[in-house]
Give the backbone structure.
Amino acid sequence: MRIVAGEVIVSSPGRNFVTLKLVTDDGVVGYGDGTVNGRERAVEGYLQHLIPLLIGRDATRIEDTWQYLYRGAYWRRGPITMASISAVDQALWDISGKALGVPVHRLLGGTSRDYLMTYPHCTGMTVDEVVDEAAAKLEEGYKAIRVQAAVPGLATTYGVHAHADDEETGAYEPASGALPDEEIWDTKLYLDFVPKLVKRVRDELGYGFELLHDSHHRLTPIEAGWLGKQLEPYRMFWLEDATPAEDQAAFRLIRQHTTTPLAVGEVFNSWFDYQTLITERLIDFVRTPVTHGGGITHLRQLMGVADFYGVRSGFHGPSDISPVGMAANCHLSWSIHNFGVQEYMGYPEQVSKVFTRFPVVENGVVVLDDTPGLGVEIDEDAAKRFPFDPKYLPVNRKTDGTLHDW
Ligand SMILES: [Mg+2]
């Protein structure tokens, strides 16, 4: 079964998505997600370099193709390279599953559990709003929730917006073609506020669910250690992205000061971003999604090593990872032993006009789908009706104007 054609589909049904389509000589079509929010054209360009390398290759040789694109290239790693390799890898797993008539999780060893616990985002302009939102999600059946609220005294806060740009997900939706929004950050206001937010949620709703919070790379290691210690009484499932992720050694300092579990890695793309963190047992959860982590092939290998160190998965699942990437996350999550949780933020309504079938959440858990391959269907004619829409994520400044981590 040879690859005979490849095409990059960049479309924007509410969000920009980069989808690779590969076709084999017997007509099997596979899809892979390579979306990197705000840098979509870079992935598209990288994939244009890869497509000629794929034509004529045996589509069933997934591992060999992965090594050919990673080890065979002089330039390794990095978000654009690894998202592009991931898109190819997902498309090949999709093709193999479809050719054999089995879902990808069967190719990976079958399901290791009865359901995939997911968590949604519970946000609000006030703590009361967050508590109400969290109560509603728990009522829907969610077993885990992430809580974020507007920090009093700050005009904007990461993950929280006065007007949900997308009604369905509450996701941030920047203006088309505009330069990045600039938000203002004040660490002292944030650190004073978050323990109160978390305490209120536990006081009002109890301890019968998993509770998560994201600091979005904004803290220093010693600030993160302090915050983790304040949150210990509330038995967090995790504190996410406490410090800028690329400084692995910083986690040694955080770990010395708190027993609150730590999650990091949504901006990572390789085992080598985790080597210190995992082998020194400095984190508890891997956040890298399939889309940004070199594909199912690399992330499965990474999770295999992580399992030996007691580190579990919590793959990134925002609405700027396409339904193809979300499906790939889910197949890997079904199959690995060390699953923790799957983030599932949800999608704007238009997404389903292009991605006409993809994994769904019911009663707070991902519904097992035995559709062959990744189980995602795409209406390519519809995709053409939603052309690429240039947008940027915001940037972040301290109150004195100094640029800070987003
Ligand atoms: Mg995060």
Q: What stands out?
A: The chain is about 35% helix and 20% strand. The chain has two domains: 3-103, 116-370. The chain has a mean pLDDT of 95. The pocket of magnesium ion is lined by residues 214, 216, 240-241, 266 (CB under 6 Å).
